[in-house]
Amino acid sequence: MSVFEGFKFRKVSSVIHTLDPRVKFFFVCILFVMAIMFTQLLALAVLFFIPLPFVFMARVNRQWLRSLRGAALLAIFIFATNFIIGYFYPSSSIPNVDGAIDTPMEYFALFERAAAMTLRFIVLIASFSVFFLTTSPDHLGLALQQSHIPYEFCFAFTTAVRFVPVLADEAQTIMDAQKARGLELESGNIIKRIRNYIPILIPLIVNAIRRSLELAEAMESRAWGASDKRTNLYKLNLKRADIILVIISVLMLTLALYLWLYNIYVPSLTSLLFA
Amino acid sequence: MIEVKDLHFSYPTGLEALKGINLTVEDGEFLAIMGQNGAGKTTLVKHFNGLLKPTTGEVLVNGTSTKDISVAKLARNVGFVFQNPDHQLFSESVEDEIAFALKNFGFEEETIKKQVDWALNLLDIEHYRKTSPFMLSGGERKRVALASILAWDPQVIVMDEPTIGQDHQQKEKLQQFIMQLNSQRKTVVVVTHDVEFVAECNPRVILMSQGKILVTGKAEEVLTNPKLVAQASIVPPQITQIFLKLADLGLPTDVIDVHEATKILLEHLRRRK
Amino acid sequence: MAVIETKDLTYTYPGATKPSIQDVSVTINKGDFVILTGPSGCGKTTLCRTFNGLVPHFYNGILEGEITVAGLKVADHKIHELARHVGLVFQNPENQLFALSVEKDVAFGLENSAMPRDEMRKRVDWALQMAGISELSERPPHELSGGQQQRVAIASVLSMQPDIMVLDEPTSFLDPVGAEKIFKVINDLNKKLGITIIIVEHRMDLAAKYANKVIVMNEGTVTLTGTPRDIFTSEKARLIGVGIPKATKLYQHLKRQGVTLNNVPVTTEETANLLLEMLKHD
After folding, report:
1. ipTM given for this complex
2. Which of A131, A197, A252, C177 is the most buried (most CB within 10 A)?
3. What residues of B are in the C interface, CB distance below 8 Å?
4. Number of folded domains that form chain C
5. Do C251 and C232 fall within a single domain?
6. pLDDT tens track for C240-253
């Protein structure tokens, strides 16, 4: 599942990793909003390049590229859909076109439009990928808590993340145990294959329930619910780097709003090449 | 017969778990594989039924390399009892649970019925035939799991830490059961760190440490060697600990059994008089 | 001074046809190191859970008789109140650690109790040190061995500074070396900090040397109480199925052959010393 590798936190000591998750999330959301505001390929290309310095600073190049690779299939689908629909309903996407697409310039405009939509999707993946690669789950849980989300949800989140590797190992062990009793997981038609997963799923689910019960016992035994006002060993404090990022984000958003509201003309690639 | 030839195994993470294992398990043997957690014991035995395939080297089960057959086919001859029965129980009744493997292996209806009856009786769980395995206690679930492996009567039975969580009586019963299996010429391989259990059974012992075999020999030779035992980070049996402290008196130190210890001490006293 | 006192304690789980524990009357004094043992299903796990109120408050069911822990009547106090005095460590190390770093787990109970951050920090560091795992403070639990995880569990309970610590088969999943380390930590807590320890254990050979009291249960009732020495020489205990350590068994075998050592040994050191005494005497 290599696409997941592009979103799994990697522990590296870098400035990006120490940034407050709330600030990073704010930045990523701004990028997302800007990606929605613009439909021009060139503008979206600029947006795509914005996360790059962060990727390099955080030294997560390889994993980040994996997220893009994982998104490739869906990206191709988005491109194809936009291209095909644009071809049959030209006026829906390309300005100033009459009737069908017949000139090279019109073909290129269609291509540019589909590419822009695809790039919008990629910008989304790329920026969220950087976020998750550089934010540890407990940091994220802490951010959620300090954002006044009820503790029960934050706790459920971090506990779930903590148990993901445990459940993965357990699933593997269960598969091994059943294979050792003659269960063939690789063969048979689709229906048989689904049925063969029952001896895997049932122990997994039963054990998950048992585990939850044990966890609940442990939680109660350590004074869960003793106080409404829960304190925390850690506290997120905004540092200078965080403030800088906030300022950058606000500036970007202001610039984008200005361009958007005042309908400032952003040239299309087509017009630059064919005019 | 299982032959292991220069087995090296590394996990996908890169961790080298086995660093050159050479070993033969004869038919009808009783073998205990011991060592600290992380020494590679479970990794090694998972090669016996093909759950893991060698990175380099090879493992031959009855002459065929495990690289060439599927786990399901190897399982016909090598039964593997996992440490936690809850990793395999899923059926609506104990009966179904025991029949599971038999169905997978393609046995006929008649044979399945016979084998299920046999397994239920062997482990004294006939009265739970129609019970749901999830309703049983921990010890009972362990017996159901064991029955479901023995049901197809494999020649080799591998048990991974069978004594964990068992009380004294359950351990004794298990011991007797293993001796019974062994007397029926079954090959029994037990992965364990329970030294007292091994001292009682006195099988051939393989001591592992950090992915290598330190030594192999009879329990009374291996477990009484203080240097090796320390290297493998295990604790010698209590009787041995006592006799090691009496070494100055000229008493033998390769004692693991309490009856033998009594005999030796009485002999020593008689000679003194 | 009694820290735990039960009188005719009887408990039936909801939906069960008969009680799991019946007429249990035990007294545990401050500073005791108690081993609670008996065959599987004898009720020792249930009894442990009455000590911190999981029974009856978490499991519901019917609790009859009396039980007082640290001066509090268990039936009248919530689990989180009792948790200030009694800590419970469970069998499976994996399922009692929820956080993504060791120190966060150790702080969990303190966070629940709304302790201020500075005080929490001191307590966490202290608990980590007592359990011998200070260098593991920022590691995620999944990367730790079973023995290390269990020490984290102990530190997590210890940080709340309970007077009593109950451990339900804490060494079940550990190898002998790991088990020995746990016992040493627990023993330090008992001897250095005066924490009353109750440990459910089958492996008498490991636990006996630290305990001053053994309670043997069978089929829901307490059948025997005494020092390890008393229990290991009791025929009744042997019949119930308590695992007598080989160190004591050797003494018994010799006695049967007419050779009696000066005292009943419970550990290998004691047996060896008694034998040396006897053999050198001649």
Report:
1. 0.90
2. A131
3. 36-38, 137-139, 164-171, 193, 195-196, 233-235, 237-239, 241-242, 245-246, 249, 258-259, 261-262, 265-266, 268-269, 272-273
4. 2
5. no
6. 989 899 999 999 99
